[in-house]
Amino acid sequence: MNLQDCIKFATENPVCFVATTDGDQPRVRVIALWFANENGFYWGILSPKQVYRQLKTNPKVEVCFYDNPSDLMQAKQMRVTGKVEFVDDQELQKKVAEEGAFLEQLTGKPLGHLWKIFRIHSGEACFWTMADTLRESELERIRF
β-pairing, 76-87 with 40-46? Predict the structure, then answer.
């Protein structure tokens, strides 16, 4: 397995779970991957949200991508562990605001200026299946 396998799995299964901390309390939520490439895994979030504050306070995260098959015995997940890095790129900022504009209808407020982009640029990933239930320490770690 390599980084390209990780990018493919994440792209095919973009709805993922992100774990952050709030003080000493873990927090997990569902979030959608924006895109992934050789430069990392990217997400867009709104700055008023608690997750933004949590990531700014402690950038260490773990994200779990899951393929959600109808047969649980066929389930596969990929865990990505690393540090979040906020990206200040005006073109990406404009693009995420355009793609997230549908949320303005839900909130009734302009949100373009509130979008923040973060990525996991380096870290490690591992894949897990039901067959790996008692083998977690033996799983291949893919460093990127």
Answer: unpaired
What's the average pLDDT block by block, 10 residues per block, for the chain (144 residues)? Answer: 97 98 97 98 97 97 97 97 97 94 90 95 97 96 98
Identify which of 116, 121, 113 has the alpha carbon closest to the alpha carbon of residue 45. Answer: 116
Q: Under a CB-based contact definition with an 8 Å cutoff, are residues 45 and 115 in contact?
A: yes
Nearest CA to 32 out of 40, 21, 44 is that of: 44
What domains sit in the chain, N to C, each tagged with a CATH number? 3-143 (2.30.110.10)
Query: Which pair of structure tokens corresponds to residue 63?
Result: 């994200």
Let me know: does 94 contact 49? Beta carbons within 8 Å: no
- pLDDT score recorded for residue 127: 98
**Pick from 113, 93, 100, 2: nearest CA to 47:** 113
Residue type, 93: Q
Sign of CA dihedral 47, 52, 58, 63: negative
